[in-house]
Amino acid sequence: MTTPPSARPPRRRSARLRIAAAALTALFVAGSAATPALADDRTASTDTPPVPTLSWTECQGGGGFECASAAVPLDYREPQGQTITLAVVRKKAADQTKRKGTLFMQPGGPGNSGVDFVRNNYASLPSALRESFDVFGYDVRGVGRSSALQCWDDARYTQAVTDAKGVPSGPDLFGAAMSQAADFDQACVDNAGALLPYIGTEYVARDIDLLRQALGEEQLTYYGRSFGTYIGTVYAAMFPERVRALALDGAYDPVHYANRPYAYDRPQYLALDRSMSHFLDWCAADQAICGFGDGDPRGAFEKLKGDLDAEPVTTASGGKANGYTLVYRLMFNLNEGKVIWPSLGAALRKAQLRDNTSFLLRPPSPASFDFLGPNVAVECVDRDYPQSRHLLKWNVKANAEAAPLLGPAMAYGPPTYDHQHATACVQWPGEHVSRYDGSYRARGSEPILVIGTTGDPDTPYQDAVALSRRLDNAELLTFDAEGHTAFGRSACATDAVVGYLVDLKVPAKGTTCTDETQPPSSTPKVAPPGTTLTEIRNGVNERQDRIGSVS
Predict the structure, then answer these.
(1) How far apart are CA 233 and CA 448, in angstroms?
(2) Among candidates 501, 486, 376, 488, which has minimal Cα distance to 120?
(3) Smallest Cα–Cα separation from 138: which of 204, 218, 193?
(4) How many Å apart are CA 277 and CA 343, to the nearest integer?
(5) How far is the C-alpha of 216 from the C-alpha of 438, rounded, in Å?
(6) Biased-composition ranges for Polar residues (predicted)?
(7) Please, is 160 exposed, middle or buried when counting C-beta atoms within 10 Å of its C-beta (0-12, 13-18, 19+)?
């Protein structure tokens, strides 16, 4: 077993953005046309920022949803200065005399729209939530309708994912990955430089507290999933006395995520490959239902990646689907858990037959890129990677080797999703003024509910365990299952979350839910409850974050 090269303690990076910020500021802020000068001190001002006024109107498309805009400080070090406008949405409880308050719904990401999250999932929420709360969501700064940032344009992103490989090879994979990541970083500076310093999660948490006040709530009631758990954790750490109830589903270990990123990245590689391995093991044991692999699905999968790299499949739109496309789609669809396994088998078989109707042969789309750009940029602002390129190279190589099924494509691929951020973030040219770097204990908060899924391929279960221990007042709810998150996939977990949010009933210590839906006896013709069969509920392709509906 090799050991990583030593590195000096991470040091804060404060390289100035190489762009005229004033020219870009007008694209996304209200107020004067110049960006406020950045102080050496990154601490937010003690001045009180104004609470935004929300003027609600019926949303386009109706459905009883109300939309508004909220002006919040661009830079909380100058709370009376320029503002950035956030898009917000709510659906009011039908009987306002029985409502308990407002439920903030925070999707995963970073990069998913909170407005879409509420609008797309409201009808699937348990009736107790819809009856007890006004359900509220918003697009965080830099995402969706809230001054969405762009790094690479669609053409450049398309080129990058088309050139990527499922089985990367060559004399200098690391050097090529670093060059591509540097190009991505420069595009961020060129296209969104004036916004980049201010998209970190500390400022997002401050935005939430202003929105809480704007809605007239004394305390926050909140459901966050995946990256939304980190946002909720930072909020609790900063404003513990303002927490009424926080349900954090698919939780992050905040210390590893923000301050020890290599310790966070490695388990994520391993969890994803473990989920793929579990699927292939099932496929080998139940060939009649899986239909892929001819007795050796693991060998067939490795061959398929290489075959698609050598001879990509032409898609219906004229694009090219290769081994990287296959890995990219599996990375998200594995999050559905066992219920989707027969559909994955059928889709792999189609890919093997070069049938471009396989949902695993859909290259990332422009809608995907709207998600992926902020996904990389936010994490590069939030996370403090050591600057040693020698250490980075060691970790990239080690992660690729430790997760051989899906890891190499991600380790050496272009900046897209979580696993592919390190090469961009080590070279990140922007400032980190909005990064949270305080304690995560949230001392003095009301009880917080942390939910972890044992076979989660995206946010490993040990992260939920770690968060429940780092918080001063938290309880862990376990879902013993494959797939990402628990709410909406487990009736047991869903009931526990509802009881907690509505009545503040915290599950008993050690509570474990075991009601995962097992693989169907044949490939379903329609999506089982809580799935789409063609995309994760955190739907990157359509920029949707879907919650399942369990009976």
Answers:
(1) 9
(2) 488
(3) 204
(4) 16
(5) 27
(6) 511-524
(7) buried
In the Cβ-directed half-sphere of 250, how many Cα atoms lie within 13 Å? Answer: 30
> Alpha-carbon distance 60 to 80, whole Å?
31
Reply yes or no on whether the pLDDT at 551 is more than 50: no
pLDDT of residue 248: 98
Contact criterion met (CB below 8 Å) for 401 and 173: no
Q: What are phi and psi of 179, to 5 degrees?
A: -65, -45
In angstroms, the CA 420 to CA 424 distance is 8
Residues 30-78: tens digit of each pLDDT: 433 333 333 334 456 668 999 999 999 999 988 999 999 999 999 999 9
Count Cβ atoms within 10 A of the Cβ of residue 157 and give its class: 0-12 exposed, 13-18 middle, 19 or more buried: buried
| Cα distance between residue 192 and residue 381, in whole Å | 13
pLDDT for position 43: 56
Q: Tell me 289's DSSP state.
A: H
Residue 526 pLDDT level (bands cut at 50, 70, 90): low
Question: Is there a contact between 262 and 397 (Cβ–Cβ < 8 Å)?
Answer: no
Return all residues near 185 (Cβ < 8 A) that are at least 6 apart: 151, 380, 424, 427, 428, 429
Q: What does the alpha-carbon distance between residue 44 and residue 42 come to, in Å, rounded to a whole number? A: 6
Residue 150 has φ and ψ, to the nearest 5°, of: -130, 135
Q: Residue 332 pLDDT more than 60?
A: yes
Phi, psi dihedrals of residue 509, rounded to the nearest 5°: -55, 130
Q: What's the chain's length in residues?
A: 551
d(CA 190, CA 39): 22
Q: Which structure tokens are listed for 468? A: 């429940």
Rounded distance between C-alpha atoms, residue 342 and residue 495, angstroms: 28
Between 219 and 317, residue with greater pLDDT: 219
Task: Report the alpha-carbon distance of residue 381 to residue 73 in Å, rounded.
Answer: 18
Burial 302-341 (b: 16+ CB within 10 A, else e): bebbebbbeebbeeeeebbbbbbbbbbbbbbbbbbbbbbb
User: Which of 264, 276, 277 has its CA nearest to residue 462?
Assistant: 264
Provide the mean pLDDT of the chain.
Answer: 89
Among the listed residues 202, 52, 145, 165, the one whose alpha carbon sits nearest the alpha carbon of residue 374: 145
Q: What is the pLDDT of residues 121-165, one digit of tens each?
A: 999 999 999 999 999 999 999 999 999 999 999 999 999 999 999
Strand partners, 538: 545
DSSP state of 389: H
Q: Which class for 272: exposed (0-12), middle (13-18), buried (19 or more C-beta within 10 A)? A: buried
